[in-house]
Specification:
It is built from 14 helices and six strands. The strands form three sheets. A two-stranded antiparallel ribbon has the order 1-2. The longest helix is centred in the first third of the chain and has 47 residues. It starts with a helix and ends in a 5-residue tail after the last helix.
Length: about 350
C-alpha cells in the first residue's frame, strides 16, 4: 500500500511538471507572436504615423464617447473582430492600454491581432469623415436616409428605389414579403467608409455585405427550429433593439415577446407606434397615449396580434441573437423605471403595481 501511494505521488509530480512545461511553452509562443506583432505595428506607426491596412480589408469601427475597455471589447466581439472580450480586457490592462482608447471612427481589419487593434484604437481617429455613411442602431431607414441626405451623401429618391426594389442575392433576403421598404431592418447599423462617386446601390450593398459576414449559418438553422422565417427574426430583433436600453436586457425582453406570441397575446410595443408616426411624417412622442395606440395600422402591435409586417429599425447582432436565443422566463410584462432599468413581471397586477410605485401611472 505504501509503495502504491509513493508511486501515485511520483506520477502526480510528473504530470504536474508536464503541465507546467506545456503552459510555459504556450505562454512563450504567445509572447513571441505578440512581440512580433507589436514590433511590426510599432515600426509602421513610427514610419508613417499609422498602421497600414489593405483597402479591401478596411472596416470602420466606432469607439463611442465615454466607452470603457469592457464596452469596447464587447463591441469588438459582437462585430467579429475578436473572439473573447474578457481576454481582450485582461490583455489591454496588462499592456497598459486602458484609459487610452480614443472616441471616434477608426479603420481596423478582422486580420489585425489584438495588439494591432489596441494600437489603432488608441491612436487618433479618422480625421476626415466626409466619406463615411452610417446606419444607426434602433433608427429606421427613413431616419438614416434623412441624415445622409442632409449631409449631401445620397439622393433620397435613388436610395428609396434601391430599398423598395432591391436586386441583391444575399440568402437572408430570399423570402422578404411585399412591403414598402423591403430592406428595412437589414441595413446593418455601422459606420461605413465609402469612396467618392459611389452609387446608392453600392452604399446599400456595403451594409448588406457586412451583415452577411456577421449572420452565421447557425442562425438559419435556429430560425427553423423556432419555426420563424428570417424576416420574422429580423422583425423581432428590431423590436428588441428599439425597446432595450441596455444590452443585458435584450434576451429578457425577447423572452417577453416570445411568451406573448406563444399565447397569442398582443405585443403592445410602444416602439411600433413611434415607427408608425415616423412613417406618417410626424414627430416621435415622449409618451404613447390611447390616441396613438388606437391608430389603425398593420404595424400597431396594440391593435394587431403577432409580429408587425416587418422590421421597424436596424438591429445589431446582439438583438438578432436575442431574438433567436431568448432567456427562459415566464415574464409577460416589462416597463422602464426612472433610472432606465427595466422591471419584469408575470402578472398584470404586479406590472401595474410596479408602475404605480414609480409614479408612472396613477
Amino acid at each position: 500500500m505504501a509503495r502504491r501511494k509513493q508511486k501515485n505521488k511520483k506520477n502526480f509530480g510528473l504530470r504536474f511538471l508536464l503541465l507546467i512545461i506545456v503552459v510555459f511553452t504556450v505562454f512563450m509562443i504567445s509572447a513571441s507572436i505578440s512581440y512580433k506583432f507589436i514590433v511590426q505595428y510599432q515600426e509602421q506607426l513610427e514610419a508613417s504615423g499609422e498602421i497600414v491596412i489593405p483597402q479591401n480589408e478596411q472596416i470602420l469601427f466606432e469607439v463611442p464617447k465615454g466607452a470603457t475597455t469592457s464596452d469596447i471589447a464587447r463591441k469588438l466581439q459582437r462585430e467579429g473582430f475578436i473572439s473573447n472580450a474578457k481576454f481582450f480586457e485582461l490583455w489591454s490592462e496588462i499592456q497598459g492600454y486602458n484609459g487610452d482608447y480614443k472616441a471616434g471612427i477608426h479603420i481596423i481589419s478582422k486580420n489585425l491581432s489584438m495588439e494591432g487593434i489596441m494600437m489603432v484604437l488608441t491612436s487618433n481617429p479618422v480625421a476626415d469623415p466626409s466619406l463615411n455613411v452610417r446606419f444607426y442602431e434602433g433608427k429606421s431607414y427613413i431616419v438614416a436616409r434623412e441624415l445622409m441626405s442632409a449631409d449631401g451623401k445620397i439622393d433620397k429618391d435613388k436610395m428609396d428605389n434601391v430599398v423598395i426594389n432591391p436586386e441583391f442575392e444575399y440568402k437572408f433576403l430570399k423570402d422578404i414579403p411585399d412591403r414598402k421598404y423591403k430592406l428595412e431592418g437589414y441595413l446593418y447599423p455601422q459606420t461605413y467608409q465609402i469612396e467618392e462617386g459611389w452609387s446608392e446601390e453600392q452604399i446599400i450593398d456595403r451594409a448588406l455585405k457586412y451583415l452577411n459576414k456577421l449572420f452565421k449559418e447557425e442562425y438559419y438553422t435556429r430560425s427553423q427550429e423556432m419555426n420563424m422565417t428570417i424576416d420574422q427574426v429580423f422583425t423581432l430583433a428590431s423590436l428588441i433593439e428599439s425597446e432595450a436600453k441596455y444590452e443585458e436586457d435584450k434576451k429578457i425582453i425577447s423572452s417577453v415577446f416570445h411568451n406573448r406570441l406563444e399565447i397569442n397575446m398582443p405585443l403592445q410595443s410602444d416602439a411600433t407606434i413611434q415607427y408608425i408616426l415616423e412613417n406618417q411624417g410626424k414627430e416621435r412622442v415622449e409618451v404613447v397615449l390611447n390616441e396613438h395606440t388606437s391608430i389603425q395600422d398593420p404595424y400597431n402591435t396594440y391593435q394587431y396580434k403577432g409580429l408587425p409586417p416587418g422590421p421597424i429599425c436596424s438591429p445589431d447582432i446582439a438583438s438578432i441573437e436575442a431574438a433567436l436565443y431568448p432567456e427562459d422566463t415566464d415574464y409577460l410584462y416589462f416597463f422602464a423605471k426612472p433610472d432606465g432599468n427595466n422591471e419584469y413581471n408575470v402578472s398584470f397586477e404586479d406590472h401595474t403595481n410596479g408602475m404605480r410605485k414609480y409614479g408612472l401611472i396613477k
